[in-house]
């Protein structure tokens, strides 16, 4: 029978040759290749300094792609319903900016409903557009809606942006009153009302001559009366403004009498007016007699009138003889209420020269004040003149243009030379003032 030897043992035997066997000599070609191989230098490890991971560039960075998806409202994961209007939004954006939404979106919540007057659909839309916008710009015409949404949703960054806008030259005196009037239905913004009231200044009396002034809320009229920057001829004007506001919806506003009138600074009222709060002469104050009758029932009225009579007498005495303060130690210990921003308007019938400390202490009748307000309402809302600083219209317009130019540079990043632009404005205004034709038109 034919037998064959296995392949593996034969191979194993060939791999383990006999050590006594002599190795054959290398052929000439093999010897040359071995010599050549020894001459080749060893290669260095070129991969030693390379990173372990290879980075591939994106056509669009992931962050930019995510922002684009959010701004295009792709793949929203939560629905916010505001007074019946639905808004598809992104949970991540709402949770980052709004502290209130962060609490409401905790857990597996994908539908939130708001049915309150403090948040309107437009207010939520404006606030969400600010969240997803690249530059986060605010439109001053929508400031009321944005403020209401920022307070309701508790968005600190948006509130800070609103405060910066309110402090900027974009919001002037009349714009501050316009924002206050548009926000009269808001109940959660007392700090904003105090800020806007401080911006009224020379627009106080022109604003009081409008119908919109009678429609502002109780919180807003109190914020106005608390301000020390109101530019008025006398404290009597602010008293009549408060009485006009109360009389507009009387007796519905009867409960607001003490709340509003306690902010009047009685120390700057003339003694003639103070005496009418506790005597039968209050019926001689026109149609405001019933309001003063209601105010006389206040338990604090006696102390207010008593302190007011003392302070007003002291102010009049100091104005007539300033040495009275140095001669009486008691007067030095008296701390008067902060004065208003007293002005002198030559067009006012009860006008008199005033100082920083001593206002117009003359008694003003309701007819005189109503006549003055009627004059202001029919005029083109010109500002009354200051005693110390009186600016012409050209100077005022020039400063406004310069402020707008500086604001444009800070916001938009204008590259033009600011000094050159300001010099052009100054030169333009100077040429206009020197032009006789312009002076004739202005006259």
From TrEMBL:
Domain BTB, chain residue ranges per copy: 76-140
PROSITE patterns per the UniProt record, alphabetical: BTB
CDD domains attached to this UniProt entry: BTB_POZ_ZBTB_KLHL-like
Transmembrane segments: none
Protein name: BTB domain-containing protein
């Amino acid at each position: 029978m034919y037998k064959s030897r296995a392949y593996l043992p034969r191979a194993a035997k060939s791999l383990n040759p006999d050590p006594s066997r002599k190795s054959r000599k290398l052929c000439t070609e093999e010897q040359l290749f071995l010599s050549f191989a020894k001459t080749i230098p060893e290669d260095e490890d070129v991969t030693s300094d390379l990173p372990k991971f290879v980075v591939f560039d994106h056509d669009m960075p992931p962050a930019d792609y995510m922002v684009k998806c959010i701004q295009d409202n792709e793949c929203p994961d939560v629905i916010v319903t505001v007074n019946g209007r639905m808004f598809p939004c992104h949970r991540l954006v709402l949770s980052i900016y709004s502290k209130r939404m962060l609490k409401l979106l905790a857990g597996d919540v994908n539908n939130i409903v708001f049915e309150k007057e403090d948040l309107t659909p437009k207010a939520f839309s404006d606030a969400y557009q600010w969240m997803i916008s690249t530059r986060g710009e605010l439109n001053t015409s929508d400031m009321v809606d944005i403020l209401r949404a920022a307070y309701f949703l508790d968005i600190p960054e948006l509130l800070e942006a609103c405060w910066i806008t309110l402090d900027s030259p974009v919001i002037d005196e009349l714009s501050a009153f316009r924002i206050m009037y548009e926000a009269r239905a808001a109940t959660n913004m007392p700090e904003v009302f105090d800020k806007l009231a401080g911006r009224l200044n020379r627009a106080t009396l022109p604003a009081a001559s409008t119908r919109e002034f009678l429609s502002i809320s109780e919180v807003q009229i109190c914020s106005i009366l608390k301000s020390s920057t109101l530019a008025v001829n006398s404290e009597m004007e602010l008293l009549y403004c408060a009485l006009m506001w109360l009389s507009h919806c009387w007796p519905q506003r009867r409960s607001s009498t003490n709340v509003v009138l306690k902010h009047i600074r009685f120390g700057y009222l003339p003694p003639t007016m103070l005496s009418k709060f506790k005597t039968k002469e209050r019926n001689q104050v026109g149609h405001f007699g019933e309001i003063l009758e209601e105010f006389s029932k206040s338990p604090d009225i006696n102390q207010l009138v008593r302190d007011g009579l003392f302070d007003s007498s002291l102010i009049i005495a100091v104005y007539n003889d300033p040495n009275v303060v140095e001669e009486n130690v008691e007067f030095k210990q008296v701390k008067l209420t902060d004065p208003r921003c007293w002005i002198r308007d030559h067009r006012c019938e009860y006008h008199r020269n005033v100082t920083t400390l001593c206002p117009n202490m003359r008694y003003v009748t309701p007819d005189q004040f109503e006549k003055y307000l009627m004059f202001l309402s029919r005029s083109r809302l010109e500002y009354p003149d200051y005693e110390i600083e009186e600016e012409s219209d050209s100077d005022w317009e020039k400063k406004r243009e310069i402020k707008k130019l500086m604001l444009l540079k800070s916001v938009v990043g204008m590259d033009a030379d600011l000094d050159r632009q300001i010099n052009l404005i100054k030169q333009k205004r100077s040429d206009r003032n020197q032009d006789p034709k312009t002076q004739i038109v202005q006259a």
